Amino acid sequence: MQTPTSSVDLTGSFHQLQHQLQNFWRSVESADNFDPSDADIVVVPSLSLDQRELQKIAGFHHYEERLLFSLIRLRNPRTRMVYITSQPLHPSVIDYYLQLLPGIPFSHARDRLLLLSTYDSSLSPLSQKILDRPRLIERIRQAVRPDHCFMICYNSTAAERELSVKTGIPLFALDPALLQWGTKGGSRRVFAEAGVPHPDGSDSVWSIDALADAAAALWERNPHLKRMVVKLNEGFSGEGNALLDVRTIHEVAPGQASHAARVDALKEQFACMRFEARGETWHNFGSRIPELGAIVELFIEGDKRSPSVQGRITPLGEVEIISTHDQILGGPNGQIYLGCRFPADEAYRLRLQELGMRIGRNLADKGAIERFGVDFVAVHQPNRPDQPEWEIYAIEINLRKGGTTHPFMTLKFLTNGRYDLSSGLFYSQQGRAKYYMATDNLQKEHYRGLLPNDLMDIIASHQLHFDTGTETGTVFHLMGCLSEFGKLGLTSIGNSPQQAEEIYNKLVRAMDEETRSLPSDFNLSMYWSGRF
């Protein structure tokens, strides 16, 4: 195949491959008991996001491991997979996932898995690293059947589009031309079009002056507001957010001063914002606005939670609701994603599904495919006759895989169960409702220095592994973060919300017990090898 030489050729070739993906999906839909995982799947877990924003996340270069749940697809004996990373993965991490597969010999699954690496630890996104290596591209091309393969990624940008074209592999992901609908400003436009409630706020602005003017206008529309949220258009996990408190500049409140005076006071107040990212400054934050754009919106006060809904748009344009979660947030202002509980509270989970479907249909009409997630704020409003107990506002859309993607897909692939729209619950093949608590951010100083093998020892010693018989236990991810950052990801699965939380707490207690009692320079591998 000739490689396109212009952007027009590239776009045309990409659309042809997307059409090929549609044809493949039609064959899936028309075949009895045919699974779309009966294919050669190329996994490119590149975090093709703004690298300066990503550096706010501890161990972000290990987040390529978050898509390792995809290995569980190898439970299908006809699936083959190519998984590519910037740096080679630790063998014990791969062994860990393959040993989770029920009913499949380890060696059979391993023979159908090809692990490739760029051996490049630079800050460049993985997809760009692959594009810089023509021989690696050719190896990927040769590893798959051209008419029976597709590529999945963490998020889709021009780099993933080019990689799809150069390998000749259809990309099951968003056309990068539609990325605007996943920005903070684009999300607000979709909410308005779909008739979904969302906080009052601004469109995207591209200068500090415009931001101050938009903030002043927001204040004038809501003269009793206390705080606003300023968000960079392409922030990640809440790290691009800041909280602007206007109570300290009440002398320029609406009715007390002119619009111009209010704008000037807000510009000065920006330097006093509380930033979610550790070490962030107004000097740095403000410098990103002309580059990334920003919005300002009303901060929702009150007794509230942060639920989300996840959906999928097939290549045929069909919208499916996949799951709902209650997100666990932290950080200085409680806006950084730490983890989640599945499912969302029954008081509003069906409402989330309804709003998610509206948003998904709007996105499908625009041509979007694959994963989308929508974050909400749910405000408790008790004692309101004939009104819902929780008032729900949409906050943002993620047109990519997110922090709730891998826990749910891990549960789905391990149990081969189904999501029930009528209840918002997930049932295993045995008919048991399943629940979990998950995090990407179990991080403690005394976990530093633990190697993946050490974690396996702790798992075995305390019987923390996932039990395929009871379909309960903990599944781990981000194991590469552990040694350097003391950080670990996990999904604790139970047959009730209480059991899932108990399993999670048992894991944390075991990790603390195994590490707090050791000298700071001690490594468990020394102990087990008899060198301590």
Describe this structure in words.
There is one protein chain. 47% of the residues are buried. It is globular and about 75 Å long. The strands form 3 sheets. Strands 9, 10, 11, 12, 13, 14, 15, 16, 17, 18 and 19 form an 11-stranded antiparallel beta sheet that branches. The protein folds into 3 domains: 168 residues, Rossmann fold; 99 residues, no CATH class; 213 residues, 2-Layer Sandwich (D-amino Acid Aminotransferase, Chain A, domain 1), CATH 3.30.470.20. The C terminus is likely disordered. The protein contains 17 helices and 19 strands. By secondary structure, the chain is an alpha+beta fold. Helices cover 34% and strands 22% of the residues. A hairpin with a 5-residue loop joins β11 and β12.
What distinguishing features does this structure have?
532 residues, alpha+beta, Rossmann fold, 3 domains
Overview in brief:
34% of the residues lie in helices and 22% in strands. With 532 residues, the chain is α+β, with helices and mostly antiparallel strands.
Question: Which helices and strands occur, and which strands form pairs?
Answer:
Layout: H1 7-30, E1 40-44, H2 51-54, E2 80-85, H3 91-98, H4 106-111, E3 113-117, H5 126-131, H6 134-142, E4 149-153, H7 158-167, H8 184-194, H9 208-221, E5 227-232, E6 241-245, H10 259-269, E7 274-275, H11 282-292, E8 294-298, E9 304-305, E10 307-313, E11 319-330, E12 336-342, H12 349-365, E13 370-380, E14 390-398, H13 405-415, E15 418-420, E16 425-427, E17 433-443, H14 452-461, E18 473-477, H15 482-485, E19 487-494, H16 497-516, H17 524-528
Parallel strand pairs: 1-2, 1-4, 2-3
Antiparallel strand pairs: 5-6, 5-8, 6-7, 9-13, 10-11, 10-13, 11-12, 12-17, 13-14, 15-16, 16-17, 17-19, 18-19
